[in-house]
Amino acid sequence: MKRALLLLVAAVGLVALAANQTAELFAPLGDVYRLIHTYYYRADQVTDAQLLHGALRGMIDALGDPYSAFYDPEEYSRWQESLEGEYTGVGMEITIRDGKITVVSPLPDTPAEEAGIQPGDWIMEVDGQSTEGWTLEEASMAIRGPEGTPVTLTVQHPDGTVEEITIVRARIHVDPVRAEYWEEERVAYIRILRFDFQAATEVGQALYGFPLDELQGVILDLRYNPGGLLSAAVDVASYFVDQGIIVRTTGPSFGTRDYPSRGNGFPNLPLAVLVNEGTASASEIVAGAIQDHGVGVLVGRNTFGKGLIQEFVMRLPDGSAIKLTTGEYFTPLGHPVQEAGLTPDIPVEVGEDTGEEDPDIAAALEWIRSQAAQPAGSP
Predict the structure, then answer these.
(1) In 3D, which of 164, 233, 195 has the Cα closest to residue 93?
(2) How many domains does one find in the chain?
(3) Which residues are catalytic?
(4) Which residues 6+ apart lie within 8 Å of 254 measured at CB?
């Protein structure tokens, strides 16, 4: 009993010491705040909220992580709006790769796609301003704007060519799921554009709306899908994976966490998943689970390689928020995705001539025909 009490006292002492050290470490922030209010010649034009937000943004920027971010109330509101599938902008997902503002993918049927923006494009300038040293939020703020207004992007395409592209901003509405039944082939086609709150529900409605008694196979199109919610990815993958792990995550706050299949009630028909360099994040979770469990094949090109998890870990009273990268995820067989991506089972090179309008779909249909509707189950 005495030993336990001594250990408790020692633990409390260590916590108090750590708190004191932290307070001392960040004491200069208070000093700078007082210095500004005392000596800065325009102190009356700067609000306390601006100073607080600047300090928080600087702390997050110091992490050097393109996926962690501080959002002021307006930025957070716009981010929530984009998750709901509607916002004003040009319609593309961006990231920072090797210090450069890089396009993950343009969204289908948006001004960005129509203007010729490509996955892997380096956005060098926005309206003549260099993007060197910009954060993702600074780039997003510069590119977005009122509907009907133009923005000029100077981009370097993956082939090295540089192009100046002017895009007129529009109201972007993204339907997360599009589905068709190709009666001649007896194949179900489902394209997921983003893993938002409605994606899993709409995929389920589409799957069970097909004529299951005559279905010969399924094509799941994840090309140019920049990702979204981890929970939505797990729910969608569960339609195809009977049992087992969908994804495994690791992080300092939650350790190792496995996300199992919710249980698959959909027939295990031949499944071809279309992927490319714009397939990222949550879409790589789905593709990786299907590939590792052997319930389908990946068709197309190597995926983007975003295997990090972001969570909002703090909401401030004024409506601002902090988003942090809190962990990394791995496929069911333990393969890392970050900066590696997924390799397709059936590679299709860009520009490959198959005599069809879409070579990825042509390759997927050819594979489905070869399976003669033989079911594939999880191991």
Answers:
(1) 195
(2) 2
(3) 281, 292, 306
(4) 326, 327
